[in-house]
Amino acid sequence: MIRLKTKLIGGKGGVGKTTIASSIAIYHALKGLKTLVISTDPAHSLADCLDQEIGSEIVPVRKIKNLWALEIDSEKATQEYGNLLVQQGFDQSSIFSQFLGGDDISSLTPPGADETVAFLKLLEFIENPLEYEVIIYDTAPTGHTLKLLSLPELTSNWLFKIAMLRQKLSSTLGGIKKIFGGGGKNVNTADMKQSIDVLRKRIESAREHLQNHEETEFIPITIPTLMSIWETERLLQALRQYGISAKTIIVNQVNPENDKCDFCKLKHKQHNSIIDQLKDLYSDEYRIHTIEMFKDEIRGIDNLIEFNSKISSIFENN
């Protein structure tokens, strides 16, 4: 059976995550692997980077065989999260929903719907490994990414609390219903428990996939500034906490050497100093690769293929 490979690309905003995620996806697709690149970033930079329209449905990437793309849509994410609630028995006709006084069940959706739907998509792909061989996640800035990494545990706990609350309220409101009459659907506790158990097992399967170092790798992207390095350290600590593998750190937007420009020489020296600090901190544990700044904006497949030579050298040397 084909084992799904997942690579999560993350870091501070503005470090070039989308460009690198797109290029990594192209690298794997050109190797003949069925590859999907997913953006969980609400900014929807992936469509701009690939220079084609991408939405909440998977579409093939132009000019590249074996590559597809998807952007998680916030509004649709909320709807899908609402559908998840309905699956657990929170439909519009239930006495629980009537008690809450809302016709829109998605009003129960907690913050983090984008990340949760991205996580639920991962569940689908784990359960259908023949569909794609490699999935590249272009994650939102670090704070959102940390939320995504914690979702296996948070979602499991959330489902349990929802089930318990529903059971208690259904019992209480059932008594009120007998006194005052009224419609509403009776609770089938056995069905509810079964659906919760099924979803719990799916979540556990995703957790195992994320923590399997042969199947999942997180690639932190940083730039040679102290603030970005500090953000990278916070991200690495979270990865250790959640047991997710990180082997490579990519330092992007490094100023190239230019003896004819005093400002360029100064920036090059500053960047090298920070990269040396990064190597002192992490070179024993991680492979550290640098990518020099390009003079032009990297947008569209042709530019990404040119940029891909930098990415290829990273993976070929690993």
Characteristic terms for this protein:
alpha/beta; single chain; Rossmann fold; 14% strand
Structure description:
This protein has a single domain (5-316), classed as P-loop containing nucleotide triphosphate hydrolases (Rossmann fold), CATH 3.40.50. The chain has eleven helices and eight strands. The chain has helices spanning 17-30, 45-50, 74-87, 95-100, 113-127, 142-149, 151-180, 189-211, 226-242, 262-282, 301-316, and strands at residues 5-11, 35-39, 59-60, 67-71, 134-138, 216-222, 248-254, 287-292. An eight-stranded mixed sheet has the order 3-4-2-5-1-6-7-8, with helices on both faces. Helix 7 (151-180) packs antiparallel against helix 8 (189-211). The chain is globular and about 75 Å long.
Which SSEs are present, and which pair or pack?
Layout: E1 5-11, H1 17-30, E2 35-39, H2 45-50, E3 59-60, E4 67-71, H3 74-87, H4 95-100, H5 113-127, E5 134-138, H6 142-149, H7 151-180, H8 189-211, E6 216-222, H9 226-242, E7 248-254, H10 262-282, E8 287-292, H11 301-316
Parallel strand pairs: 1-5, 1-6, 2-4, 2-5, 6-7, 7-8
Antiparallel strand pairs: 3-4
